[in-house]
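Reviewer 2 asked us to include a model.

Predict the structure of this chain.
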Amino acid sequence: VAVDSAPESAGFSEQMLGSFLDQTYGEALGVLLGVGKGARALELLNAWQRGVLFLVDPYIHLRRGYEREENVQDDEHQRMYEHLRNVLHERPDVQGRYSFVREFSFAVPSLWKEKKWGPQPMIAFLDANPSYGAVRTDLEAWWPLLASGGLLAGSNYTSEGDGSIVGVSIAVDEFAAKRGLRVFVTTVLDSTCSCPEDFKAVCWRS
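Predicted model (structure tokens):
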């Protein structure tokens, strides 16, 4: 697609992503980049019941380049991590289906290959730093590791100004155009608003 081309509809709502993954990929590996309190992780684990998720988040405060409310201090990050870890530990239905990776998202693909963590993932979901530079770095880092027929997906398909704070759509559109990929978006299920914040970006791998 050209950078200024309109994305296509994915044909399902944001809330159905987990079910789509379960129906399309079944038993496969996925990666969630940016875990935080764990709402997205729980959503995907609940719906993608045959999938295994690597939960990638360093859970540390970034002292520059990420001026957002999610960038809490180290002690709060640690509390969030421990709470989610305990929640998942108490869930018999998700045992053996997740693994925490406390590392920066862009550094994980090289570790994955070096340590041979498993087959190539079928999906990498970007839900971390939404700046243009961070998203572009993650896309470039994860694309070579993604399995054939796999999916790059993410949240917050929008941009503000030059993208230095929020530049997801700029980075995704440039990445797709460079490789001749199609970009799909899902919408929130219960909203009639058509503003960009209601879309999620999906890049299909050919």
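Residues 130 and 166 are 5 Å apart (CA to CA). The first helix runs from residue 17 to 24. We have added this to the supplementary material.
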